[in-house]
Amino acid sequence: MNQPGESPSLDVSGLRSYAFGHHSVMWWGTMGMIAIEGTVFALVIATYFYLRSHSAAWPMSVLPPELLWGTVNTAVMLASAVPNHFAKKAAEAHDLHGVRLWLWVAVAFGVVFLGVRVLEFAALNVRWDSNAYGSVVWVLLGFHTAHLATDVADTIVLAVLFHTGPLDGKRFVDVSENSMYWYFVVLVWLPIYFTLYWGARAL
């Protein structure tokens, strides 16, 4: 209670200690990471086309990557945005059942993608140490695979935590930011797909 002459105090005990979107420090951290990693992807893609512009034949003495598995994975990645979207919405609505459900569906899509990715590597028609073309192709595909694998692992950890606890509001923020990063992994795959599979076929 305020004493006479004192300014009224503000009771903030009922306010949340967390927030979603740009009001969250986690959001800014995620955006910073996306900006850095997006720049690295752009540099590797630029390296691919730089090497291509300085080569008389591209790909170098090998066939282009087979289209099947890369195209299948593109469809899987685009479809994975759906459960990811619902996981984000459920988290922001504090819908515990929805978060649990959609996180595991997102994990299933990620595991399928990683399984098909093994077939993609086998269908590249070049080894990483064969030549400059092989090196840049493996770096680009491997870099994206590493991002996907870590995001799937993070999603699994979140899914387990939402079953075992402890839970507080910040966990829902974690799911929301994990979903933002998943969007990044999905969207960055599109230029990679066109670079790897059609850049090797373009005149």
- Tally of individual helices: 5
CATH topology heading: Four Helix Bundle (Hemerythrin (Met), subunit A)
* Radius of gyration over all CA atoms, rounded: 22 Å
The total count of strands amounts to 0
What is the first-to-last residue Cα distance?
A: 78 Å
Q: What characteristic shape results from the CA principal axes?
A: elongated
What is the domain tally?
1
Helix content: over 70%
Q: What is the strand content?
A: under 5%
- Kindly provide the name of the CATH class: Mainly Alpha
In short:
The chain is an all-alpha fold and 203 residues long.
Question: Keywords, please?
Answer:
single chain, about 200 residues, mainly alpha, Four Helix Bundle (Hemerythrin (Met), subunit A), 5 helices
Tell me about this structure:
By secondary structure, the protein is mainly alpha-helical. It has one domain (24-55, 65-198): Cytochrome c oxidase, subunit III, four-helix bundle (Four Helix Bundle (Hemerythrin (Met), subunit A)), CATH 1.20.120. The protein is 71% helix and 0% strand. The chain has five helices and no strands. The protein is elongated and about 75 Å long. The termini are far apart.
SSE layout and pairing:
Layout: H1 25-53, H2 67-92, H3 96-122, H4 132-164, H5 169-198
